[in-house]
Amino acid sequence: MSTLEQVRINFSNDSVGLLNFCLGFIMFGVALNLKKDNFISLINNKKAVFTGLASQFLLLPAFTFLLIFLIKPHPGLALGMILVAACPGGNVSNFYSMVGKGNIALSVTLTAIATVVAAFATPFNFSFWGNLSPETSEIIKSIGLSFTDMFKTVSIILVFPLLLGLLVSSKTPKIASMIEKPVKVISFVILMAFIAVATIDNLDVFKNYIHYVVALVLLHNLMALGIGYFTGKLFKNSEQDCRTISIETGVQNGGLALVLIFNFFDGNGPMALIAAWWGVWDIFSGYIIASLFAYRSKRSTNKLKQVVK
Fold first, then answer.
1. pLDDT number for residue 11
2. Membrane-crossing residues (predicted)?
């Protein structure tokens, strides 16, 4: 495992800048989709919103630390897992909530609120849980990570574009409605192209070291999806809301994790491998869980029709 310490991902400053732009553009697109109804649903469905936020920012980081304590991965991999768990949900979660017959209004609302909360919660959770273990704490101290610097980075990449999108949506709703879909499509295509190019540029690294992270990310992601769903059930949320909370907790913003790794950890190989593979894997796992939820809905509908007959 010691060879992992020498791994570095090939990522230029221009690439980091492009990834920053991609994430900001995506959040701008998410905000264009926010309507007054989303904020009304927040008032009417406070329990689901607070359950979703607690699942993402309290339970997932805590259970991630517990998982690390039990399986004891390489410190760099462990720190990558903590960073991913500290990030908010990714915007593609809104699409998966729609596919999985979840509560789309709740999904969009949670994405927006979690993005704002993340400005404080992401650096706090990362610093708190990362410093609890001597091995991971040593890595954090070696680069002199500043809570304030991370707060500024998360705010610039996620919060400011979100606020700009909200401003456009509220002041010029016709323009927002016109550009909403193109922005979503363009941002998704740019991000996928970026991931493809970055993967090709680092193909040797992935081929040689990906086996270290596949099982870890699979286990971590399954745990995240489970935490979201069963926390929703524990607090007696509706089935629709539980599905959305599961997806919001399980589909994390791996892109943000990568940006933070390249901004603050000089492309630390083990951390970047976790974040990069998470970003690829949760695209598949999100669709799989959403499809399973949709299948359950279809079966329930068919059973109900048979009973009626």
1. 64
2. 16-35, 47-71, 77-96, 108-130, 150-170, 182-203, 209-232, 244-265, 271-295
pTM: 0.86
Backbone angles phi, psi at 268, to 5 degrees: -45, 115
Segment 40-95, tens digit of pLDDT: 666 777 899 999 999 999 999 999 999 999 999 999 999 999 999 999 987 778 88
Contacts of 156 (CB under 8 A, 6+ apart): 20, 24
Residue 107 belongs to what H/E stretch?
helix 104-130
Contacts of residue 70, Cβ cutoff 8 Å, sequence gap at least 6: none
Whether 118 contacts 282, CB under 8 Å: no
CA atoms of 218 and 116, how far apart (whole Å): 28
* Helix residue ranges per DSSP H, the chain: 13-32, 36-44, 46-54, 60-71, 75-86, 92-99, 104-130, 134-143, 147-154, 160-171, 173-201, 203-209, 214-234, 239-250, 254-264, 269-308
Tokens 């401003």 -> residue: 167
Residue 133, beta-bridge partner list = none
Task: Determine the Cα–Cα distance for residues 54 and 94; give it in Å rounded to an integer.
Answer: 18
Question: CA 149, CA 260: separation in Å to the nearest integer?
Answer: 10
Q: What structural domains does the chain harbor?
A: 13-303 (1.20.1530.20)
Return the bridge partners of 8, or none.
268
Backbone φ, ψ for residue 89 (5° rounding): -65, 155
Q: Give dist(CA 91, CA 104) in Å, integer.
A: 12
Is 225 within 8 Å of 250 (Cβ atoms)?
A: yes
Residue 5: pLDDT over 70: no
Grade residue 18 by pLDDT with cuts at 50, 70 and 90.
confident
Half-sphere exposure of 89 (CA within 13 A, CB side): 34
